[in-house]
Write a structure and sequence with these properties.
The chain is of the alpha/beta class and 339 residues long. The chain is built from nine helices and eight strands. Helices cover 39% and strands 15% of the residues.
Length: 339
Amino acid sequence: MKKIVLYFCFYFLMVGCTSSQSKKTYKNLGNPVEFATTISAKDLKEALYIYASDEFEGRQTGEPGQKKAVEFIKERYMALGIPSPIAKDDYFQEIPANFFNNQANGDSENVLAYIKGADKPDEVIVISAHLDHIGISKNGDINNGADDDGSGTVALIEIAKAFKAAADKGFGPKRSILFLHVTGEEIGLYGSRYYTEVDPTFPLENTVADLNIDMIGRVDKKHENKRNYLYLIGSDKLSSELHDISEAINKKYFNMEFDYTYNDDNDPNRFYYRSDHYNFAKNNIPVIFYFNGTHADYHRPTDTPDKIEYDLLETRSRLIFHTAWELANREDRIKVDKK
């Protein structure tokens, strides 16, 4: 009888320990839904009405408006308490004027912020968006670039805010996450090229993936009657695993339509080669380019913040956050299985 009692005591002790350990493991992972909800249409709108205002003069590379833009981004990260990987309070990766091949009227800057990984800090997920636009037209009209790429810029800051909220509650990502705002995209992808070819803050061999956000605040003509969509480009070009993860995240949390029209190798628009993800892809780093398609206001002064569909911008930003969360926290690094 004594042996039976001892057996059951031991059994319940072990079950209790196992249960406790299971709960501890779950707690350490955190619930991404809780933190995704910190990304709000209200905050996105408030930020974009500043970032795509006339005060920023179209954010042309090297111009005073672009300098205001990088200060805006820096101040947001400092207010959130998200540090730079460069040095304390130094968020700017300086790019000399001569690097731009006479396409800019001065030097410029990428803006970098990051959250260090808790378990695998040397492995890095990059989330990128370009901070520049095309400036002022010859007739004096300001090209505010609310969608291109003000939408990606404010989305990236909101995604960073969500990861910081998780880290503050003890649910920091396993891998490091770099929030990379690049300059010079409109004149030839210069900022991302500088980062990947000249001064990668984190070694490219340790870079797991790049999720690039370029225009996610509008609806194109094709989808006017079916708003819950997003174009994805490049997700299957280098890693089958990345594509499958992306699809699974969408199915689990959002169930929006992923349109792969522009992912076709024969796409005449060649969008795969026309945004900053490409400088990562050509270095064998898996990428996803998130895009809402073009519209009548593309590269025109009429690309203004009042035309952004903020509910969609919120949903799309949350989708990218969930995808980055999965890439940062999964046990194994995704594999490159294509050339």
